[in-house]
Queue: 2 jobs
Job 1
Amino acid sequence: MILSSLVLLFILAPLIGMFLHTGGGQFLETVKDREVQQSVWLTLWVSFAATLIFSLGAIPFAWLLARKKFPFKNVVQGIIDLPIVLPHTAAGLALLGFISRDGFLGKTASLFGLNLVNHPSGIALAMAFVSLPFLINAARDGFAAVPERLEKAALNLGASNTKVFFTISLPLAWRSITTGFVMMFARGMSEFGAVVIIAYHPMIAPVLIYERFSSYGLNYARPASVFFILVALLFLIGLRLLSLKRKEKYINADAQTD
Amino acid sequence: MLRLININKRLGDFALTDINIEVSAGEYYVLLGRSGSGKTQLLELIAGLEHPDKGRIILDNEEITNRSIQDRKVGIVFQDYAVFPHMTVFGNIAYPLRARKEDKKSITEKVEKAATAMNIKHILERSTIKLSGGELQRVALARTLITSPRLLLLDEPLSSLDTSLKDDLKRLLRNLNKAGQTIIHVTHDYGDAISLAKRVGVIHNGNIIQEGSVDEVFKNPSSRFVARYAGIRNFFKVNISEENGLFVGVTDHNVRFKLNGVTAGNDRLLFIRSGFISLTNEVPADNELNAIKGRITEIIPSEFGMEVVVDAHDLFHINILFSEIEKLKLVEGKDVWVNFPARAIVVINSNS
């Protein structure tokens, strides 16, 4: 009991300390700072977009992992977890080689006149690279928890595989998937190491905080941190509430029509 | 209608081997076996949820071995019902129709009709989460029957219902079958098998070890397993009639049973529950007892002590303790009385 409180305190104390050290006037000034506003907004939407776009591939992939047997499945699972154990600067460097003008993806993108380095799309890739395991693993566990019987019954009732996926597997794994979605989004927007190598500019909030700290010191970096934390928290809570509501709506809507 | 030809399927360290079954149209076929005997797997093979390693499945003269699940028109109702928890009762029953993209109006009509037939119209708008086992089962049945399956597969439909619900469901299944629905019903319960089946297949360790009409299989068990499975050897076909206010069942060999709580009718099946039969050397004093005279033809050691076979034109099998044999001085060729109360007799109401 005492040990648990100590652990909890260890997490909370530095945060509370930071909040207490931030004066109201200082904080308001930072909030009004256009540079800060832009970086916070950039961080949020890029991470959200990365999560949304990658979930289109990650969710069916998670279903495959939960349901199908295939050769080297353990290896595949290991590869998925790789970004969690890599130092994120190393991940950033690896990704840079891939998306710079000499890399495969970079070359392809430049054909369309897009330079991924120092561009939001590059930031999105870096965020996705380090945070994708959270969505895939949560969604996989969610799909695995759906009784296979229900999918079999739906197939037996004449539904196609796609139809079964969208009407049975996905809605029943919905809670885990949204949890994974929120986790991936949160992990993506807090990423620093991989992003700073791909794009110092445009500046996402973690890079901005680092820059203010290294150029002007703790007192300048702190209000920006507090602001970013508050906005991120609000966004996360909002997303959670929204996902719970959507699940309820799905159940109620079914009584009427498809 | 359905033919399984030399079906083989390996499932881990267990295998279905050389399964051959033929079910004709309109038949009620019961597959009887203990849990782990492979009966559920066999249903899944027929439904196309699994594929056999070897062998062929023929339905209505068409080979469907490699046909997709959706094209088979074989409906399966799982033991746990597999009712979709995130949909209402209506949503569940409408599911197959929506998958076929029928229009809204015809869906509503068909669902209401199916729900009325299953007596669940009043719960159509409810969520399935709080339904009872019996209600869930009716939802699952309605959902499958709405697809008009050529063949209905039932996996242990009676196992988790209490007695009164069981009787309701049995009646419902009998009526379905009478209306022409071909049914394959999998169960571990001997009582269910004899009360519903026209034909029975006994499955053990992945093999069909005996097949035939209920009467054939349980009167002439082909193996010790089938005999022990039933646990009952005393199984008789009788005509029941009323004599002086009392009901009497008479076999083809003129053995007479005093019965309670039955109705008259021909070609009924009855069995005597084991553990109720005793032997005496004299006519018992209690007039209420059934007392049937016969001659001992065999005394065989059994797992319960000794098994005495008494020939009273029909054969009775009685398990008694070795000490009883000595006390009554029972030997082969001796005449004895077989006694049992009317309440030990179970009549299978094949006409209800």
Job 2
Amino acid sequence: MSTASPSLRGNSTDDLKGTSLLLHGVVRADHPSAGRVVTWQDLAMVVSDWHQPTREDAVAHLEMLGKLVVDGPVVPLRFGTTATDEESVCAEVLAASAPRLRGLLDRLDGLVELHAYLKFDEDEALRMVFDEHTVTWQETGGLDLSTRIRLGEKVAQQLVTWRRTRSDELLAAVSAVAVDEVALPEGDHTEERRAFLLPHKEVEPARAAITALASIAGIGAECVAPLPAYNFLTEPKETSSDSRWGW
Amino acid sequence: MTTPILPGASGGLAEALNILLDKGLVIDASVRITVIGIEILAIEVKVIIASVDTYIRYLEAMQRLEAQRRQLDSAVPTPPPASQGIAGAFGILPPVPVGVAMAPAAAPQAQVVAADIEQQQ
């Protein structure tokens, strides 16, 4: 398998016989810009015709949800969620979990997710780490490979610590207006990725603040927003143990 | 990093997609509702190999910086300690009698001269 061309797995085409719908996200039934939906009471599932999903479909899925969240709260579903028919969407998703879905929509109303990606110049970052620590590196040349790897890993840890501290400083203005924030999965050691949950009106000022960071020498900065609150779907406190949902 | 690279998008959106592809509300297995996923195992192996290479690169960078620092340190002359003797001579010198004439000289030479004087005495 090529890394540049991931394939879909988990169900063969035969397994998916009878599947007719691809599910994208839950919105309120009165959402003004949702396209094709399956509605049940005050809830609606945004759907499209099912076909074997492609990379382009994944992009379209994210873009669509990003547009929808501007006009109202969206609970995004995992990409690749399918249903056999509209009745199963109503019965097994919307009706079965209506209180929970309503709770999420209420909690996320007016809020969107914003991603900030900072990329620090590696040479510059290593120099900062070097200057911060008083370790002598000159004698490490003759060490065996495993020791060198372990020392290199230590440098990487110091690099990550420096990067997080520096990112805290650079993103302080966004943090100040955010309702919540989380660190996103690690990329390179010099790449900081964070998700913020923001009031919608704060997106443009935050975007301006983040993109302005790119003018600082040695820093690349990118902002992606608005997105549905993928990283803030904290499950409300459960009192029963018969949950049908996984997160 | 265990997320796949999806070339269907570009820039920040592609990065967001890589991060978010395995997120979102998941409905437990059901006959009529299913979730299909993205294969990522092949990428995890590559990431491990890349990490080792990266660690070595970081260590080598630190060694280069250390060498540069030492080179810089040796290129900058160490300022001599405060003069303790005559004509800018330094080092541990015995008290020099007042009135002993000494020619102005560079610091090391002055030290030698001072030692000679001590022997003569």
